[in-house]
Write the structure tokens for this entry.
Amino acid sequence: MREGDTVARLGGDEFVVMLENLDEQEIVAAEQVEVIGEKILATLCNPYQLRQQIFRSSGSIGATLFCGQIQDSEELLKQADIAMYQAKKVGRNTLRFFDHKMQEVIDARAAMEEQLRLALENGQFELYYQVQVDRVGLPIGAEALIRWNHPDHRMVIPEEFISLAEETGLILPIGRWALSEACAKLAGWSSDEKMRKFVLAVNISARQFRQTDFVDELKALIAKYALDPSRLKLELTESMLLENSTEASVTMNALKEIGVQLSLDDFGTSYSSLQYLKHLPLDQIKIDQSFIRDIATAPNDAAIVQAIIAMAEALRMDVIAEGVETEAQRALLDMQNCRAYQGYLFGEPLPVEKFESLFKDA
């Protein structure tokens, strides 16, 4: 058990464990409970030697969450007891939650985690590329977007698996693969007359960015593929930089020494001070698509976009608008002096062969 947890014996072979200081998010708290419960089950399964005999045992655990809400202790014990009998019914030596929906979510997340591991092993991930253009519509580069070719014949978008990959740490090998794959493609474009000047944007996860050897790994990739580092653009989120602005600044300055470009993704979606912007070596601000979506009909969104562009100009940073889908949106952005665009108006994310064919046929 952890320090601060409580263990009590009710009687016979029944024990109660009370876990405190769990995460405020219910699903994350449930995952923490499951991890601790699995450790208890694993320990109980160890063989015991009593005199000359070896004994083996197992346990069944029922769990319920009360998340700080005031509930009757007897009711909580009853819920845990019901869940424990469910654990026995499914074969013993397991853990079950009183909330069946939560159990379903936990089981689904565990299954997806295993599928993610297999996806890495079996090469099921693929990078799609969405074109980025200048204000007159000429292509200047692309953003690499990861997709998962799921075994059930569907293409899974990042929103469905990235958060779980972050929580489990699988985002590190996934991120390394994506960055290496992007560098390899960028190197291949160097010999193509129409694509050799393209800048390729790659999303970097918070965990990947905080790794102590991240900068060294990137240096090794640039050397391996003989890349012009200025053609590689790393997209970092606002929340990532605010978690530890001092460390983030050190890492970003090290990246700038290499020569790569740095773009601030999802700008304006976090509640934060703008003070940090002037201290970070950013090349570009990416206006989040949530502001672009209603720019033609919502005066507030239009005003926010105008302010972002003006601020970026004052700070000598480039601006790119993502999620541009209509000519009306593009025209308004152009009036406000936006110089780069990305969105379905100019092209959808494509697998690399289709993306490259656009320029071979042009």
Summary: The chain has two domains: 6-98, 123-360. The chain has a mean pLDDT of 90. The radius of gyration is 26 Å. DSSP finds 13 helices and 16 strands in the chain.
